[in-house]
Amino acid sequence: MKQSVEKSKVKAKRCENKYKNFAIASVLILIVPLWARFIPGNLIHMDIVNVMALAGIYSCAVIGLNLLIGYAGQISLGHAAFFGIGAYSVAILSTRYPGFPAWLGIIIGAIISCAISWIVGKPVLKLKGHYLAMATLGLGEIGFIFFREATGITKGTVGIIAIPPLSIFGIVIDSDFKIFYVVWITVLLLMLFSMNLIKSRFGRALRALHSSEIAAEAAGVNTSKYKTVVFVMSAVFTAVGGGLFAVFQRYVNPESFHFSVSILFITMVVVGGLGNLWGAVIGSIIITFLPSIISALPYWFPFMPESLTNFGNYTLVLYGILLIVFMIFMPKGIAYALEISYSSALRGMKRIRDRISAMRYTKRK
Amino acid sequence: MVLIIVTLALKKSTGLQWILSGLTVGSIYALMAMGFSVIFSSTRVINFAQGEFSMLGGMLMYTFSNRAGIPALYSFILSVLIVTLIGAGFERLVIHPLKKPSVITIILITIGLSIFFRAAAKWIWGTDTLAIAPFSGDKPFKLLGATLVPQSLWIFGFTLLTVVLMFIFFNRTILGKGMRAAAENPEAATLVGVSPPATSLVAWTIAAALGASAGIIIAPIKFVSFDVGVMLGLKGFASAILGGLGYAPGAVVGGLSLGVLETIVAGVFPSGYKDAVAFLVLVIVLLLRPQGILGRQEKLE
Predict the structure, then answer these.
(1) Does residue B256 form part of some domain?
(2) Which residues constitute the domain of residue A141?
(3) CB–CB of B104 and A75 under 8 A?
């Protein structure tokens, strides 16, 4: 009896700790627009709030994809299609029927994604490894071709312009500042959900089937069900991101949902850290800022030779190199490195504190 | 097969035209598919950068023959040689040191490589679509009522030659037989003296050479730009799956049938949907018959 009370106390403390970290991280993110305002735009040549909002949109997709790749160990190279389904649902509904609430469009996009991913996921997830990668790639590419060719519905390569802004409780979300908060509150809610998810029975089942499907099956885990559910969940997260993308950009065209975007998501997962929840967020922030930083470099270093200032071309080269280098040398990503340095910093601090108190003790003697 | 007969019966001359141009493209897919198959069968790796090898081949060919004015044959050899060295170098520098990588790792690394090559090509050659002169004129000729360009004959001839060479290599040489043995059972092959690292290196070398030559011989018909590798690679992969991954004759059959199927679909439906055929075939085959139409039943990892 006493033991179980002890145990529950420990558990409660760990829980508290988890939420404390979550609260710190949320506050750090949510105060970004407050300090970013005071940095004059012509000094750094990028709009931090705008890029952060985009990073948040990508985060939705990347958190979902991380559950699928990092936790369940199932790869998908076609998630850009779900991003597209979310975005086109909002775009089509709110331009065809004026006055259609965009938030309802986001929900409908999520529902469509849910249905499609469930229908597709069940058979496709029977495949493993390379076969799964290629099948999802094929499905994603079919989605892209549909967005491009079904001109009657999606207006083809022209794209859909003039998407009305999102409005919530009568507040029209029309500035970067407002959309930043809408996006990041969504991201934090998704994070909270995923944090609890991976600590639950469901999360343990996912990790079990990651390490060995046969062992998980033997232990009574219905692997096919869990794989389908996590696939559907990641598709829904991605569709929500896509819906926010549509109201953020205010126009959509098929290029934003190409195969390369699926790869972009995966690069974010890898750079942040496979199987690390905060890694997804960190990875999306870093990768989204990369092009802006690169295009701002010539302004920061005006003395640079002319031939080196055409930085736009380097971005993709950099993605390729990052993907290879991270997979080989840092497969656990940046989040893991941060965690390690954070805990070693804590340990270092403690050691210093100990030494100081020891010195005091000897002085007193 | 059935499809070909039905098309021929329905539309005599157009049908033949479709089939011949389908076979032309299909030969290229077959070469690409062989590249995938060679690497997969000896190392269980799928090289997502296979399409980029052919793009690089085409680009280098353009540089040597159009810019530097080197005769076609020498530029061909030179380009294939350079791409082959790149392929072999990548295997030595990245794949080999990894020892036993997980599937996700290897997929992501080869994807990273393909992004890198594509971006580098965009940087070096720009985004223009470049044309390469056909090897022997561009005067079309008639064959059984269908029109063909001479380049098609080059493509057929080269593919046939490659298939024969591959057959000889895998069935008559010690190295080739060793590679087949390693594909069948790596441990047993090691016991009888086949070295897995050497197998892997040879496989990557052959695949890079196949990819580069496919990219070069198709370039006079389809042109070349920094992003041709994606589609060529994906369709080559779809062909490999269709025929049976890791099974060389399957790669040829898969490539040819996909080429014909695609041309027929492009003739009947709006041509924008042409690219969807390969992916539809890919997904359907993967779901219904993952070992391909010719492949043997094998346990999928």
Answers:
(1) no
(2) 47-331
(3) yes
Closest CA to B250 of B154, B166, B161: B166
Residue B200 pLDDT: 86
> Does position B299 have pLDDT exceeding 70, yes or no?
no
Per-residue pLDDT of chain A (365 residues; tens, 9 = 90+): 556 666 666 666 665 667 777 888 888 888 887 777 777 666 666 778 888 899 999 999 999 999 998 888 888 988 999 999 999 999 999 888 887 888 888 999 999 999 999 999 888 888 887 888 888 988 888 889 888 888 778 887 788 887 878 777 777 777 777 888 889 999 999 999 998 888 888 888 888 888 888 888 888 788 888 889 999 999 999 999 999 999 898 888 888 888 888 888 988 998 888 888 888 999 999 888 888 877 777 676 666 665 555 555 667 778 888 888 888 888 888 888 888 888 888 888 888 888 888 888 777 66
Q: Where are the alpha helices (DSSP H) in A250-332?
A: 259-272, 277-300, 314-329
Taking each helix axis from N to C end, the angle separating A79-96 and A129-149, rounded to the nearest 10 degrees, works out to 20
Size of the A and B interface in Cβ pairs below 8 Å: 124
d(CA B60, CA A44): 40
Domain count, chain B: 1
Q: How far is B15 from chain A (nearest CA, A)?
A: 25
So what's the pLDDT on residue B300? Answer: 44
Q: Which of residues 152-211 of A touch B (CB under 8 A)?
A: none
Identify the domain containing residue B183 by its residue range: 21-133+143-227
- Which chain B residues are within 8 Å of A213, Cβ to Cβ? none
Instruction: Judge whether B289 lies within some domain.
Output: no
Please state, in angstroms and as integers, the Cα–Cα distance from residue B16 to each residue in A65, A178, A216, B11, B12, following that order: 46, 61, 54, 8, 6
Chain B contact for A322 (CB, 8 A cutoff): yes
Q: What angle do CA A236, B285, B259 make, to 5 degrees?
A: 110
- Residue A151 belongs to a domain: yes
Q: In terms of CA atoms, which chain A residue is nearest residue B292?
A: A131
Q: Point out the residue among A142, A259, A324 whose CB comes nearest to the CB of B112.
A: A324
Q: Establish if A348 belongs to a structural domain.
A: no
| DSSP per-residue letters across A220-248 | T--HHHHHHHHHHHHHHHHHHHHHHHHHH
**Residue of chain B nearest A124, judged by CA positions:** B287
The total number of structural domains that make up chain A: 1
Give the minimum alpha-carbon distance from A129 to chain B in angstroms, rounded to a whole number: 6
Q: Does B157 reside within a domain? A: yes
- Alpha-carbon distances of B194 from B37, B40, B96, B188, B240, rounded to whole Å: 19, 17, 16, 9, 25
Q: Which letter, b or e, does each residue of B146-161 get, where b requires 16 or more Cβ atoms within 10 Å of its Cβ?
A: bebbbbbebbbebbee
Which residue from B109, B279, B282 is facing A324, i.e. has the nearest CB? B109
Mean of the pLDDT values across residues B85-114?
Answer: 85
pLDDT at B30 over 70: yes
ipTM of the complex: 0.80
B102 contacts B116 by C-beta, under 8 angstroms: no
The span from the CA of B4 to the CA of B7, in Å, is 5
The answer as to whether B232 is a domain residue is no
Which CATH number characterizes residue A216's domain?
Answer: 1.10.3470
Contacts of B246 in chain A (CB under 8 A): none
Contact state of B119 with A327 under an 8 Å Cβ cutoff? no
Helix (H, G, I), strand (E, B) or coil at B286: helix
Considering only alpha carbons, which residue of chain A is nearest residue B235? A138
Residues of A in contact with B270 (CB under 8 A): 149
Q: Cβ–Cβ of A313/B290 closer than 8 Å?
A: no
